[in-house]
Amino acid sequence: MRNVRTPAVMSRPMLMGLAALLWSGCGGLPEATDSVSELQTQQAALAPDQCAPVPAAQTNAGGIVYHRYATGMTWANAKADCTAMGGRLAVPFNSASNSAIHSIIGTDLTYIGLKQASGQSSTSAGWQTPEGNPAPFFNWSSGEPNDMDGVENGHQDCARMYTTGAWDDVACTQVSPYVCEFAVPPLQCAGGSSCALGTDSAYHCTCPTGQHYDVQRNACVNGP
Ligand SMILES: [Ca+2]
Ligand SMILES: [Ca+2]
Could you give the 3-state DSSP secondary structure of residue 217? Predict the structure, then answer.
């Protein structure tokens, strides 16, 4: 699937339908299906000019588009940024999706969409998706998750991928690059427009003063 959308050929609803078709053919685990349906529900609510900034790297796997963003953020801010694009902080749901994310992280320790609920009795208990559902898959590195010292005290409650593709639990205040995932290819602003975060906490294609964004053309056109 192409990354740059072609509005004249395929509308967002058509793409949503296509994405649903691709998902239904995946035969994935029930947990993965639930996880994907959450993502589709989020994306169904997108505004037609909602966009994703140009990523540092990207790949597609199993019908999902993964974008890596290299500017470091805390886990909570990374989660919010992916949501503002209409996606979510990427949740590996099997080894294939984990490998896809791994393939674009380069040499960075990179946040993924797993957080541990507070008040757990062990370092490995209570890991959840950004929506607060049980994590569908794990790929901890040897000796992880350790909450820093092997005892669960809430010191390390967010998951970050090593350059090996295995994971470490780290303090959620750590500032790290992150990977967002999308059920349909996010809009990439073109024609003189750029993707900027609006006051509504969503990214939109925006144009220079004196022009406005035309959704059908994915371009800036003259006039207010
Ligand atoms: Ca912990
Ligand atoms: Ca750790």
Answer: coil
